[in-house]
Amino acid sequence: MRTRDVLALAEDAQQAGASGVLLAPVSYQKLSDEEVFGLYDVVTRELSVPLCVYDNPGTTRFEFSDELHGRIAQLPSVRSIKIPGVPAGTDEARARVDRLRSMIPAHVSIGVSGDGMAAMGLNAGCEAWYSVIAGVFPDTALAITRAAQAGDAQQAMHLSERLQPLWDLFRQTGGSLRAVATAAELKGLVDSPCLPLPLKTLEDSDRQRLAALIDELQLS
Amino acid sequence: MRTRDVLALAEDAQQAGASGVLLAPVSYQKLSDEEVFGLYDVVTRELSVPLCVYDNPGTTRFEFSDELHGRIAQLPSVRSIKIPGVPAGTDEARARVDRLRSMIPAHVSIGVSGDGMAAMGLNAGCEAWYSVIAGVFPDTALAITRAAQAGDAQQAMHLSERLQPLWDLFRQTGGSLRAVATAAELKGLVDSPCLPLPLKTLEDSDRQRLAALIDELQLS
């Protein structure tokens, strides 16, 4: 994706009324630190809504250092960083969030992604959870979030751990997108199939397993 | 990239007079085997020019199995596979090419990519080299190719090995693209800077090193 395309899409989003934009450094060619800084520098100069830096190395093949996050977070419009998850373990997760927090301005929030890591991330000090399941199962996602925000770390972890069969299904089916899109189909929220080709929603036993989990885990 | 976008681009390329197309399974979401097969199935149905399957896991995060190559190579229009390189070592390279060759029709060629691996790949039985340097240094690329095609494996390897400082520079500067684009600038073949942002051509010491190598290695 060229910088000029990103600018055009950002303008289009703003014209359509978006109140913020999310930007990952997606590129056919793996980018360097200076190229990524240049991308955010150019885009934030043009932007009149807040921007969330999307740190998603699994997709972009680009690894942000905390130092680079620190530089980018100084740019105008940057208001949040979506991190790719947190290490397993309470102390490790806290150390990871604390280190990033020490290098970015206070007005830039840190949000966790990877739904199975949300409770650990929120307990470790992330101010937001950029959730996939919340679009289809808002009550389930909100219960985890409210527990963590209330300081009940144990309850947040408990609520997350009971969803382990769902996190396992995400991993087995190539990430959360296909499963959550399938859930939207199963709940009648969208036409089926809802994903654009070449992507396909779950079929056969995976689809049946998901339908059963929605009931068993009382996802809502 | 959605299938419908790929179809639109393929149609555009054909309308513009392209005599063939190259298609890698680029996707924001990492694709499954069935999704990739579905992509090539749909695209080749619509195509009236030959297609080269671009196997480029470093960019797409998708790993083709030889079995999947075998299925896709049966589709109409498929005439070549661009493989991501060959293993180091004459026997290993030959075994890799032979295995793929045994699973695809005879009318589908195998072409090597990764310029530093071209001599090894051609010697191992690849019928083509999908080269980056050939666009700017055709004589240099042709000498390697002609030696391999004439059966002089040792000379092909010798000509490639003397370019090792160039292959090293490619690796140190994030792949061949930036260096070869810089070479095109240095030779006055294009305006400078020629790469679209956020990509940048080489600067400072990397640029000077490349300019020196063009002379020292007599690239032409």
TrEMBL record, chains A, B:
Top-level lineage group: Bacteria
CDD domains: DHDPS-like
Protein name (Swiss-Prot/TrEMBL): Dihydrodipicolinate synthase
Alphabetical list of InterPro entries matching this protein: Aldolase_TIM, DapA-like
Family as reported in the entry's similarity comment: Belongs to the DapA family.
GO molecular function: 4-hydroxy-tetrahydrodipicolinate synthase activity
Organism: Halomonas huangheensis
Species classification: Bacteria, Pseudomonadati, Pseudomonadota, Gammaproteobacteria, Oceanospirillales
Classification via PANTHER family: 4-HYDROXY-2-OXOGLUTARATE ALDOLASE, MITOCHONDRIAL, DIHYDRODIPICOLINATE SYNTHASE
Keywords of this entry: Lyase
